[in-house]
Design a protein that fits this description.
288 residues; alpha/beta; TIM Barrel; eight-stranded parallel beta barrel; globular; binds zinc ion; fructose-bisphosphate aldolase activity
Length: 288
């Protein structure tokens, strides 16, 4: 039996309860443990996701799933954990359905719309047969992630309705959000479009590029129907800053401070703190 839960109930409850659940990208062993620790300490459900590029970096999809699973065992993790593929293409989504993920994103936003719709339908059918939840995407998220550059066009309400009708469990829609740091001339989230989409469909909505969006905009997006907020850059910046500080203060030259378990520890703790802080922002309630 899988140790993972799918995202369906978690995000439906979140949408009804007007809060969100964080989806944190993992990159390696430290990231995996830090995300799990942050969720366990706040006693809240969590979604660990891996991008195609990060899975390749770590080995493959199965290795990532096994790592998360085994860390849950040795860390005695008791909160619900969703194992999710972030921004998968058609092949990657199928591979993760086979590998035992409990949730997959099929991102067909760069395909012609009819093809995105058809392939989303297929993935939903394959995934639901195994109790796996599916995230789909309409419009696009601006910025760059793993070499995929999105211009950031707004999702149309009609397209969102058509994709939601495939039975996908949650839906990412472009509303002016961007992957990576936000440029200074960024005009903010398009709340009018978000509201139009949220009024038209009951599907929980996903906000990608959550790092760097001001807290009050995230809270407003959640109040309008966003239930899943993706966080990647925030943890990367926190890890880099803490590691830089440790080295600049000579930590690595102090005794055996160069030992990787010591060298990576400040960054690790920074991720735990960031995860806990973000879970607080999202208003994720504790599990009973
Ligand atoms: Zn994304």
């Amino acid at each position: 039996m899988s140790v993972f839960v799918n995202g369906n109930a978690i995000f439906n409850d979140a949408r009804k309860g007007h809060y969100a659940v964080g989806a944190f990208n993992t990159n390696n062993l430290e990231w995996t443990r830090a995300i799990l620790q942050g969720a366990q300490e706040t006693n809240t459900p969590v979604l660990i996701q891996v991008s195609m590029g990060a899975a390749k970096y770590m080995g493959d999809y199965k290795l990532v799933k096994t790592l998360v699973e085994e860390e849950m065992r040795v860390m005695n993790i008791t909160v619900p954990v969703v194992m999710h593929l972030d921004h998968g293409n058609y092949e990657a989504a199928k591979e993760c359905i086979e590998a035992g993920y409990s949730s997959v994103m099929f991102d067909g936003h760069d395909l012609p719309f009819d093809e995105n719709l058809e392939k989303t339908k297929e993935i939903v059918k394959l995934a639901h047969a195994k109790g796996i939840s599916v995230e789909a995407e309409v419009g696009s998220i601006g910025g760059e992630e793993d070499g995929i550059v999105g211009a950031g066009e707004l999702a149309s309400v009609e397209e969102a309705k058509a994709i939601a009708a495939t039975g996908c469990d949650y839906l990412a829609c472009g509303i002016g959000n961007i992957h990576g740091p936000y440029p200074e001339n960024w005009t903010g989230l398009n709340f009018d479009r978000l509201k139009e989409i949220a009024d038209a469909i009951d599907t929980p909505l996903v906000l990608h590029g959550g790092s760097g969006i001001p807290q009050e905009q995230i809270e407003k997006a959640i109040s309008l129907g966003v239930s899943k907020v993706n966080i990647n850059t925030e943890n990367q910046l926190a890890f880099a800053a803490a590691t830089r500080k440790y080295i600049e203060e000579g930590g690595d030259q102090n005794g055996k401070g160069y030992d990787p378990r010591k060298l990576l520890n400040p960054g690790y703790n920074a991720i735990v703190d960031t995860v806990k802080e973000i879970i607080g922002w999202l208003g994720t309630p504790s599990v009973k």
